[in-house]
Amino acid sequence: MSRDTETARPMQRLPASEAWRDFERLIDDVGTNHSPVLIVGTRSNAVLVSEEGWRGLQETLRLVQVPGMAGSILEGLATPHEAMTDELEW
């Protein structure tokens, strides 16, 4: 999970016809750069993500469904390193 979501690069957009022409290269690029690509079709759109990115999204969704986990993660992100201890509260 990135702490800098506000500074993340905008998602690349490609027309479906262009994505289709060089799909193998597009898959390689997404896998290497770990940046999703928005594929824009005439009737709907889709997002191409790497397998690693997809697994990360699934894990994040699983974790935020645990009661209190999202708040705990946000609290941990806001805690200065000096204030951290080795003691677990759970």
Topology:
Elements: E1 12-15, H1 16-21, H2 23-33, E2 37-40, E3 45-48, H3 51-64, H4 69-78
Parallel strand pairs: 1-2
Antiparallel strand pairs: 2-3
CATH topology call: YefM-like fold
Q: In the CATH classification, which architecture applies? A: 3-Layer(aba) Sandwich
What is the residue-averaged pLDDT?
A: 87
Beginning-to-end CA distance, first to last residue: 22 Å
Biggest sheet: strands, sense, closure?
3 strands, mixed
The CATH class assignment is: Alpha Beta
Number of helices, where a helix is a run of at least 4 consecutive DSSP H or I residues: 4
Number of domains: 1
**What share of residues is helical?**
40-55%
Estimated share of beta-strand residues: 5-15%
Q: Topology as H/E string?
A: EHHEEHH
Task: Specify the structural class.
Answer: alpha+beta
Question: Widest sheet: strand order?
Answer: 1-2-3
* Rounded radius of gyration (Å): 18 Å
CATH level-four homologous superfamily name: YefM-like domain
What's this entry about, in short?
The chain is an alpha+beta fold. Helices cover 46% and strands 13% of the residues. The protein is built from 4 helices and 3 strands; from the N terminus they run βααββαα.
Describe the structure.
This protein has 90 residues and is of the alpha+beta class. It has a single domain, classed as YefM-like fold. The chain has helices at 16-21, 23-33, 51-64, 69-78, and strands spanning 12-15, 37-40, 45-48. It has a three-stranded mixed sheet with strand order 1-2-3. Strand 2 (37-40) and strand 3 (45-48) form a beta hairpin. The longest helix is centred in the middle third of the chain and has 14 residues, at 51-64. The relative contact order is 0.12.
